[in-house]
Amino acid sequence: MVLQSLLATCMGKSLLIVVPARRSSKRLPGKNRLLLGGAPLAAWTQAAIDADNLRAPILLTTDDPELIRTGRNLGWMAPFIRPEFLARDDTPTAGAVLHALDWWRSEHGGDPDLVLLLQLTSPFRPHGFLRKALSTAEEDDTVAAVVAMKTLSVPPGKVYLDRNPITPLIAKDMDTRDRALVPSGALYLVRTEVFRATGDFVPPGTAAQVHDGISTLDLDTIADLRTAESIIAFGDWNGPAPHADPSNPPSVA
């Protein structure tokens, strides 16, 4: 099988989209199988991919047979069930992605140049969001990764580590005027060579793609889910969205 790639915007760089989705979740059980606006979260990720007209293979890594069926219905590749040791609550996502990359390399004879990691729990990606990251990687070969980031509501000088006693995150004599950023979870684009060498989605040389507002919502708690449902109910989202299946209930109780 010939490796598909986003040739038009990545200067011939091959692209693989990887979607990691475990079955279990402590804070919001079954979160990757939730429905939002009558459609599965996987369909919201597909809507963002379609909106940016990305023509790249999508590889799902999961231990959930139901998610495998959902992914395949969307045209995603789901050729294996993720091993149990890579699907525990304390398993870093990097291990599962490396496992998926190893499968890809064994089947296709090489690695893609770029890996785009998309989590199902970030449903509100705006039009052009994915392409913007790809353009950043295209324009500067020294950029090792592009990561979606959101702004902390407080400056870094007012952030403390939960220790006894509490400890400032940065030294008091450091300049604290810069805004502090944290990954939003909406997008990780990394050069495969760098990821294999570091095992890190935010390696040295990472560029931040800063966004705020609705698009930063990550569904990790029931409160997050209720917020997302309210956004849909009040029509506050005008970005990419799937067509709801009227035979499905709107969400979980």
Question: Explain this structure to me?
Answer:
By secondary structure, this protein is α/β, with parallel strands linked by helices. The protein has a single domain, classed as Spore Coat Polysaccharide Biosynthesis Protein SpsA, Chain A. 28% of the residues lie in helices and 19% in strands. The protein contains seven helices and ten strands. The strands form three sheets. It has a six-stranded mixed beta sheet, with helices on both faces. It has a two-stranded antiparallel sheet with strand order 2-3. Strand 7 and strand 8 (167-168) form a beta hairpin. It is globular. It starts with 6 loop residues before the first helix and ends in a 20-residue tail after the last helix.
N-to-C SSE string, H for helix and E for strand: HEEEHEHHEHEEEEHEH
CATH class: Alpha Beta
Radius of gyration: 19 Å
* Residues in β-strands, percent: 15-25%
Mean pLDDT: 90
Distance between the termini: 43 Å
Number of helices: 7
- The chain-level structural class is alpha/beta
Q: In CATH terms, what is the fold-level topology?
A: Spore Coat Polysaccharide Biosynthesis Protein SpsA, Chain A
Shape: globular
